Amino acid sequence: MEQVDTTVGPALGTDLAALQEKAAEAARLLRLLSNERRLLVLCHLVAEGEMTVGALAQAVDLSQPALSQHLALLREEGLVATRKEAQAVFYRLADPRAARVLALLRDIYCPPEA
C-alpha cells in the first residue's frame, strides 16, 4: 500500500484553531460539491467562463427543470452568479474558494498527460 503524504501545507498543523472556526463553512462548500451533477456544472463553468441554462443542461445531460434546481441552490449559496442578456440568463462561477477546490480536483483526477 502506498504511503500517504500528510503534509498538505505548513499552516495546517499550526493553525487548527482557525480551521475549527471555518469547519462549518468548509463542510458547506464540500456538501455543495458532493453532488455529481453540481460538480459537473461548476467544472463546465470553469472551463467555459459562463454558459446559458440551455447550454449547461445539454453539457451535463439534465433537464432544464432539474438543472434549475441545482443552479438555484448554487446561486443561493453564492457559488454562481448570473447575467441576463435579452431572454438568456448566463451563469458563471462566483466563488474563488470553489474555483480553487475545482482546480485541485482537476489536478488530482484529470492530470495532464505526461
TrEMBL record:
Residues 18-114 form the HTH arsR-type domain. SUPFAM superfamilies: Winged helix' DNA-binding domain. Keywords: DNA-binding, Transcription, Transcription regulation. One of its GO terms (molecular function) is DNA binding. SMART domains: HTH_ARSR. Transmembrane segments: none annotated. PANTHER family: HTH-TYPE TRANSCRIPTIONAL REGULATOR YGAV-RELATED, TRANSCRIPTIONAL REGULATOR, ARSR FAMILY. This is Transcriptional regulator.
